[in-house]
Write a structure and sequence with these properties.
By secondary structure, the chain is of the alpha+beta class. The chain is built from six helices and five strands, in the order ααββαααβββα. The chain has a five-stranded antiparallel β-sheet, with helices on both faces. The longest helix has 88 residues.
Length: 222
């Protein structure tokens, strides 16, 4: 009992009798074995806990490293986002300036300019078109221009809309050199807008060539 109390659990308690002392010896040895097993279990638990603690520490380190990597990635994404946004803002400004310059150039043209889609709907037109046609009606489609030509001079028998359709199919410009329009002569050109796959619309140009036509008529020997 004193050895067990000191923690010496390796020495077996021998039983030499069957009386009360022998029974006590059996109980002491059983208690020794139970304590020894408990000690072994505790040692095993400590080893496993130490191992688990090491694994947990490794996992914590890995987690911290992953956290730092994610934070760095987020910082890189934010930096790239800010860079992209700045580029978009700058490019948008440049496009707006380019658009303003283009519109100013088209609006300053002396001949009529019409941008139409594949359905002959007018997407854009410049002020010179209305000046040349001398009409206060709003031109919404190339069909409206054709009707104006026919209404002004019944001798006009050209299929402008059909020709514009054909210019998209052929992917090449079609020109009408002298189209009578009241007391004027007009030059009309349809030129397709072509992408990689197909023509998506066309540009319709109307030029007043009255002076040139009259000059040619007076100088022509025939």
């Amino acid at each position: 009992a004193k050895k067990i109390n000191r923690g010496d659990l390796d020495n077996q308690v021998y039983v030499n009798s069957t009386d009360e002392v022998g029974e006590l010896a059996k109980d002491l040895d059983a208690m020794r074995q139970a304590l020894k097993q408990r000690e072994q279990d505790l040692a095993t638990s400590n080893r496993e806990l130490t191992k688990s603690g090491g694994e947990l520490k490794t996992k914590v380190i890995d987690l911290e490293n992953n956290k730092k990597a994610v934070i760095n990635l987020l910082e890189d994404i934010e930096a790239e986002k800010a860079k992209t946004e700045a580029t978009v803002v700058e490019r948008t400004r440049e496009l707006q300036e380019e658009r303003a310059r283009l519109l100013a150039s088209i609006n300053s043209l002396s001949f009529g300019f019409v941008l139409a889609d594949a359905q002959d709907v007018v997407l854009f037109k410049n002020p010179a078109l209305q000046t040349i046609l001398g009409s206060t009606n709003d031109v919404r489609s190339v069909h409206d221009i054709t009707q104006l030509l026919k209404a002004t001079d019944s001798k006009v028998d050209i299929d402008i809309m059909g020709s514009c359709k054909r210019c998209m199919e052929l992917k090449q410009p079609i020109e009408f050199k002298e189209v009578p329009y009241g007391n004027k002569f007009l030059r009309v050109i349809c030129t397709p807008i072509i992408t990689d796959k197909a023509a998506i619309g066309y540009i319709f140009l109307v030029e007043d060539i009255t002076e040139a036509a009259r000059l040619y008529a007076t100088t022509d020997p025939s």
